[in-house]
Specification:
Number of helices: 4
Order of helices and strands: HEEEHHEHEE
Oligomer: single chain
Shape: globular
Radius of gyration: 15 Å
Structural class: alpha+beta
Number of strands: 6
Largest sheet: 6 strands, antiparallel
Distance between the termini: 31 Å
Helix content: 25-40%
Length: 133
Amino acid sequence: MKRILLSIALATAVAAAPGAAAAAEPASNNAATETFYIQLVSRSRFSADRGDNFASIETGREFVQLTGMSEGLAARIGKRRFPSLLDGLNKLAINGWRLVDASTVTQGATSTVTWTLAKTVGDRSELLDGLTD
């Protein structure tokens, strides 16, 4: 219940922020920068032990293509696990990622919390900061 209330509060707080309609978009104040989006996702079953819950990074195919990263690196990023969404957000925020959207979907006994993060960079090599160990 706390997780759902936290997600609702975050979704309300970032409701005015733009969604993640595209993997990259030019920033309006500087044509030499781009904004990229990723998602932190946590899926949990109400009957599962708390130890089974974790958050992972999802980048999407377009992100992988735009950044030119290898499939192996993309797989390694997708396998990265954080103990919670907040742990993942804190790690990524230190490296320039910011929360722009939050949503929760509950289907049966499974709840999926998704946080969309954005990072504006001048050089695409900056995107990997925080995504890899």
